[in-house]
Amino acid sequence: MTEGYNAIASVYDKFNAEIDYKKWADFIEAVFDRHLEKRPELVLDLACGTGRMTRELSRRGYDMIGVDGSEQMLSVACDGNYDEDLNKIYEILYLLQDMRSFELYGTVGAVVCCLDSVNYLTEDGDLEKTFRTVHNYLDPDGLFLFDVNSPYKFREIYGYNSYILEDEIDGCSVYCGWQNSFDEKTGICDFYLTLFSENEDGTYSRCEEEQREKMYTLEELKGALETCGFEFIGAYSGYGFEAVDEKTERYYIAARAKK
User: Fold this and answer.
1) What pLDDT is recorded for position 12?
2) What is the pTM of this model?
């Protein structure tokens, strides 16, 4: 049994193939255009994972830094730095660091943190530690953009549900069994994953992994941002700046660093 994304790093992108990073990056740039006098030059992708968003923003001309706490995920990110279609290498600085206490060489114009990485801050004080660190490394009036799974998703989508994911990588089958366990009192949801990967000789390798997320209300997030020196700009339910409601599954949040 491993924790985090160590066991599934190699199949993470395959099981998340439906994510449209181009549309997501379009939304990020739309936020930049709404709330900045000019687009930032240097951007941090916090909890960058396999680097899909990091590379997409790099492709658009931003100087990118990627920070993640998983060596295995960063290894996949580095392997993807060569784009065969464009015959180019992305010049991205990847750093193996904890999102609660990362260190940079200077400030950046914006920080993005995608795919509910903030929900992985599960211990008391983790949220504020992360927000303060982000604030410290943002330029004055720099933007912090992140998303979280909503309380509705924790209660109605995660709950105690189970899933089976199946796909194929390089001609070999991969199966993932996914079991959720949500505790309403603590706001903690545990995810138990069992991964079966087919080997070239037809046998299967099995590994197990446990992940954990914490539910945050919009009020809790607003309060933590303001405590850590941010101006809350808005929370949206989609890339078109739609308002959130009681059935929104993901909040896209924008905040400004006041210094």
Assistant:
1) 63
2) 0.91
**Can you tell me the distance from the alpha carbon of 177 to that of 192, in angstroms, rounded to the nearest whole number?**
8
* Residue 245, φ and ψ in degrees, nearest 5: -140, -170
Domain count, the chain: 2
Nearest to 207 by CA among 72, 116, 95: 72
Low-confidence spans in the chain with pLDDT less than 50: 1-3
In this structure, are 106 and 199 located in the same domain? no
Please, are residues 54 and 45 in contact by the beta-carbon 8 Å criterion?
A: yes
Nearest by Cα to 78 from 96, 61, 62: 96
| Closest CA relative to residue 47, chosen from 108, 94, 88 | 94
pLDDT at residue number 2:
42
Angle (deg, nearest 10), helices 126-136 and 218-227: 50
> For position 90, what pLDDT does the model report?
84
pLDDT for 180 equals 94
Q: In terms of domains, do 64 and 97 share one? A: yes
Structural domain boundaries enclosing 173:
153-214
Residues 44, 106, single domain; the answer is yes
